[in-house]
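Annex B. Sample input.
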Amino acid sequence: MLRTQPDTAIAAYGFITRGAALANPAGANCTLNCGRYRASSVYQIDVAAGGADWYIPFAQGQARYCDVPPGQANGTLVVTFPMNGCALEVRDVGGANRFYHDSDGNSLPALTVGAPKIRVTYAQYAGPDNTTHERSLRYFGPDKDNTGGYEHNIFCVKVGANWQVYSSAVIRLNQDAFQIKDRVPFHVGTFAD
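Annex B, continued. Sample output.
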């Protein structure tokens, strides 16, 4: 459903992204497997290297990237590690779309190559009043033992001649997870292939 009806899927269900491949130094194509996150109503997408989809790697204090050739099939997904203060930027690098995961929103070098196509910042995906963080603190308190917290999972879905960018806001607590549905944007951008 995330591939064929992304607007409906992101509005109805929470999604989180996990997998060792997300920590690789270089992004590449991948296989995505979807199942329930522990005992919750949120779905976990596991990322494994090799396949028809793509992943952007993550490293703190860096802006790692993945080059995705244009002309991907409808429903192709580009995923990355959860974001909280990070930014997604896509640039045209002549023959590829370069998808960046800017780990703190400030790590992309000033002289980055390619013409920018889109930049999605924390202010755009967190909601008008930083909704996810405020709700996490209000309902669950500070994450003192690292068993919970909030996260934004960004998904780029190829639809026709464009890529659609979505955000899934999720709060995790112990063995459960909850999707935040109100006061957060689901669709956060569109850019041409």
